[in-house]
Amino acid sequence: MQILEVLTQYGSQSLDRTFTYLYDGSRNVGPRFRVLINFNGRPVIGFVMSSRVTTKTPEELKEENGYSFKFIDRVIDEEPLLNDELMELAHKISSYYLSPLISVLQAMLPLSLSPKMSTLKGPKIAYEKWVELISSDESDLTDKQIETLRLIAKNGPILKKEAGSTAILEKLIVKNRVKIILKERERFHIKEEEKEVPHEMTIEQNKAYCDILSNEKRVVLLQGVTGSGKTEVYLRLSEKILCEGKTVLMLVPEINLTPVMVEYFSRRFGQKVAILHSELTQAERYDEYRRIKRGDASIVVGARSAVFAPLNNIGLIILDEEHVESYKQDNAPFYHAREVAIFRGDLTGAKVVLGSATPSLETKARAMKGVYGLARLPHRINEKGLPHTTIIDLTDRHNFEKTSQKLSKPLLEKIREKLGKQEQTILLINRRGYWTNIMCASCGKIFTCPNCGGNLTYHTEDDMLKCHHCGYVERFPKVCPECGSTRLMRTGYGTERVVKELNDIFPDARVARLDSDVGKVSKNVEKILASFKNHEFDILVGTQMIAKGHDFPKVTLAGVVLADIGLSLPTYRAAERTFELIAQAVGRSGRSIDTGEAMIQTFNPSHYAIVYGAKQDYESFFRKEMQERKIQQYPPYVYLILLEFLSKNEEKCVQASNDFLRELKIQNFPSVSFVGPLCPYYSLNAGRYSRVLLIKYKQGESLRAYLQDMVRRYSGLSNVDISINVDPLDY
After folding, report:
1. Which CATH code of 3.40.190.10, 3.90.180.10, 3.40.50.300, 3.40.50.880 fits the domain covering 388-432+494-630?
2. Are 159 and 129 in contact (CB under 8 A)?
3. Spatial distance between the Cα atoms of 373 and 387, rounded to a whole number of angstroms
4. CA torsion angle for 606, 609, 612, 614 (degrees, to 10)?
């Protein structure tokens, strides 16, 4: 009999402890197995953390401990789900992000394998029936049976459905000539790409490649301007690592960038490549995960969660566009893939490469201090200069004419010029929908989301009002629900309205739109990008989805319709986000033979984020923004922890946040300051009232330990839930 220590996902996450169960079966059940248990009268999936053999009876154990132990209902898995390295990584993440271990395990494993009850109904291994030859003896067989037997003998094991008559097969099975075998069928296949001969690297690419390999630092920042050829460096590094018998993990920030990177890698490395991201079906993800775990793939390409891929012997981890915020998980355990990749590199000895034209300030600062290594690609590979950029002042009404109040005369004239030359244009506006604000002109009611308090945006395609923060939707009303007035004012604009104006002004132009509304159907993204690359469209309008990671050789004009959107957000990263978006968008232009141009529309033409973004002058922006961060005491000068208090009762929410702050202040932690409790930008969260408390600190081991204990004590009290977000990207 075995005694199992089992971690469960039951109820409140404050139950971050194991419970003891017994197992009296024939199998040796060790750590990292899932088991079905009875917990408080209900079936729950548990995760075995440790086990030991005992010769004592259940009665003797009861007498020894003073209470009886329950037996598990059954063992779910045939083998442990995680290896020792991944289990150690889970503990590291749990400790750093102050998150219950069970929530980390849920994030690490595919949904179909996570410790949740829903996984019992998830996908299982798919099998195909094959027919295999036992004997070629044709005696006592009919002609038809001989024909089938010879078919199988000639072609080896064949699919049962290809072997002909089921009745004949059954006769051959009975006569012991053939047998049926089961083979696992994979439900996902990477498209076969024509093998590519490696490109000759430029002098700068070769230097960056050598600098990364020779650098004594485990983590190296590869900083290269847009179009400098970072991908070829990734491929050459991967090639070397594979030759050493090790594996490679390649992360991209957005799911829509995964096919592009997979194509690059599969052209170079063929079927060694596997994919992991959330757009795969549960069954496909399950198959890919198992294929990686078996060792059938030596390169994994994927989005954020692919950082947990069950690769063995990892030699290289790459994060492309490491600055992109989608690498940060927006719910518990709130991990950042960059930090997890570094943790994993430390555990495995793998080199970690962080690539970007516009590195996050934290990464750049660590590289400047020598914590990380630094390799550079300062020029484009085709020796083309960066695009010529014009900043257009939207406060100057002379820049507009009657045809459009959203697109300026200089921008429209330049688009017209590019259309005449049969060159392509991309236009970035980081806002979806048609109208972004709806208000009743009679009573002043502003249409806001009942779940989070954010403004609702009108989408003309389906005539709906949508919240871009939490996903709430409702039908567009014909009258005001408060006063019944039909005088509904519509202001602001997003991608849909820009497309409408372009179609009106340039009726012969072929205009496409790419945003997350279009991208809800995953095949649409790939289809639109491929069509635009093949010049089936002249103009592509989109959100940040089009601003990074794409290479459009025929694009010679990049326009930012409204550069100020991000500057108004209440976050210390507003300027950094704006700079990154502008610099990345500008960088899409002029990447081939033709010289590129860019035009930036803004109400703040003198703001340093816009000026430096237009020039793609990262170093100047870095110096200026670091000054601002130092004054305001934000990362990388301090660390942050964000506490969010949630309750259906606003008074209890406020009280709990104030009580929490009061207790923290009493402890008098050194070099710790507090902001709040505040009512956040989105005052509601899933219909519950919210308050946030921001903690700034420089040295915080004692603070972190105390916080974790406090959250456990406070959670569930007075109907207030508390979440901990370590290293938040907002506020």
Report:
1. 3.40.50.300
2. yes
3. 29
4. -80
| Residue 345, token pair as written in the block | 């590199």
Topology adopted by domain 639-726? Alpha-Beta Plaits (3.30.70)
Question: Which three-class secondary structure state does DSSP give residue 536?
Answer: coil
Same fold, 203-376 and 388-432+494-630: yes
Name which residue leads in pLDDT, 695 or 283. 695
Architecture in CATH of 203-376: 3-Layer(aba) Sandwich (3.40)
DSSP state of 32: T
Angle at 363 between CA 389 and CA 577, to 5 degrees: 40
* Coil, helix or strand at residue 190: coil
Whole-angstrom Cα distance, residue 319 to residue 348? Answer: 16
Dihedral sign of CA atoms 569, 572, 574, 575 in order: positive
Give CA 714 to chain center in angstroms: 31
For 214-228, what is each residue's pLDDT tens digit? 999 999 999 998 878
* CA–CA distance, 166 with 418 (Å, rounded to integer): 64
Distance separating alpha carbons of residues 122 and 87, to the nearest angstrom: 23
What is the rounded distance in angstroms from the CA atom of residue 81 to the CA atom of residue 293?
Answer: 9
User: What was the pLDDT predicted at 13?
Assistant: 46
Query: Alpha-carbon distance 678 to 80, whole Å?
Result: 45
Per-domain boundaries in the chain? 2-121, 127-184, 203-376, 388-432+494-630, 435-492, 639-726
pLDDT tens by residue, 228-279: 889 899 999 999 999 999 999 999 988 777 777 888 888 888 878 888 876 6
Class of domain 2-121: alpha beta
Neighbours of 586 (CB within 10 A): 28
Model pTM score: 0.83
Tokens of 113: 């394998």
Average pLDDT over every residue of 94-98: 91
Q: Are 163 and 151 in contact (CB under 8 A)?
A: yes
Query: Rounded to an integer, what distance in angstroms lies between the CA atom of residue 176 and that of residue 251?
Result: 51
